[in-house]
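Example record for the data management plan.
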Amino acid sequence: NFKVFQGNEVNLHDPWPSSFGSTQYLLRYMIPVTANYERSKISDEKGNWFCMPQSITQKPFFYLDYPMLVNYASWGLVVGHEITHGFDSTGSLYDFEGNVEEMWTNETTELYNDRIQCFIDQYDNIEAESGIFVNGIQTNAENTADNGGMAATREAYKQWKLENNIEIDSKQRILPGLEFTEEQLWWISYGRVWCNVHQPGIYDPATYGGVHAPAIARVNGVVQNFQEFANAFECPINSPMNPENKCGLWHN
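Corresponding structural encoding:
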């Protein structure tokens, strides 16, 4: 179920759920572009929910005149990312109403941890800057959400094409003036979301405490795990963007 919280429903001067930390946190980090997954109560709503700020439903994430694959590869990825958080090591501790209740068996937890280790090892070896590597443990929850979100939005796009009787040949160029196939355009659209500029040294492990990997890792780390990317751009096996060992959590 989706609900739009408007100004007369959400008063920024009223107390907010403790999970937000503070109204200042919400104003500074969440409202502009950041989606957020929560397992707490907001307004009169209780349960597992995620917030999609209106700014994410605009360019470059979403635009009605974009080909739908562009929207699915960008905005759809964000939706899939937040949903995946409901099935990570923290989300598994809550039921569908947001009550504390562990959902997984011990066997499921062990299998989950085994698969998670693959992501940790992978991202530990991604170089954020010259000589600076990603902390795979520190960024693990967000990395797996990126990968799970990609798998989810790709399935959603396939379902959308099926429901709308849309067939696109894998070699067809679908945007005039751009010599990219449907599959190539998908991955380019995903990578475009993470275009940014940052100060040198910002990801120094001695000072960086963020849970999100650098943008270059959020792009490369995901595409390395999808054979469809390697096929689209003809990356040789065991080349940097097509490692033989690929990580998967909720997809193979």
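Summary line stored alongside the record: The first helix runs from residue 23 to 30.
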